[in-house]
Design a protein that fits this description.
The protein is of the alpha+beta class. The chain has one domain. It contains two helices and six strands. The longest helix has 15 residues. It binds zinc ion (ZN).
Length: 119
């Protein structure tokens, strides 16, 4: 894995960059001393080399809506969104905002569950 460079992608770049952030509740009891983080909102912002001029809330001619939020089953819906067919894209780079500790476990756990119990 290479570090992110401080340059915009070239126009011919066929990569979709998706940044995600999640909010969780902590009401569900896991044990006597611990609660479980349950995601109740996942938001994504995305861009590609064609959408530099699109407004933050706008629509890119190539990759579509710049911002989206997922509420119902937010991690599943984000993973489904990331996996949807995009014939123009050679690669999708997903970057979690401030990911640490539980954030990435939630995504990995849900991805594993979807692998074994696809909806
Ligand atoms: Zn785009």
């Amino acid at each position: 894995m290479s570090p992110l460079k401080d340059v915009l992608p070239s126009v011919g770049d066929k990569v979709l960059y998706v940044f995600n952030d999640s909010e969780t509740t902590q009401n569900m009891r896991h044990s006597d001393k611990a609660t479980l983080h349950v995601p109740d909102l996942v938001s994504v912002q995305q861009f590609c080399s064609q959408g530099e001029d699109a407004e933050d809330c706008g629509v890119c001619v190539r990759c579509g809506q710049r911002k989206q939020s997922f509420w119902e089953d937010p991690v599943r819906d984000m993973l489904t969104y990331l996996c949807k067919p995009r014939p123009w894209a050679k690669k999708i780079v997903a970057i979690a905002h401030n990911a640490k500790a539980f954030d990435l476990h939630i995504i990995l756990n849900r991805a594993i569950m979807l692998k074994w119990k696809p909806n």
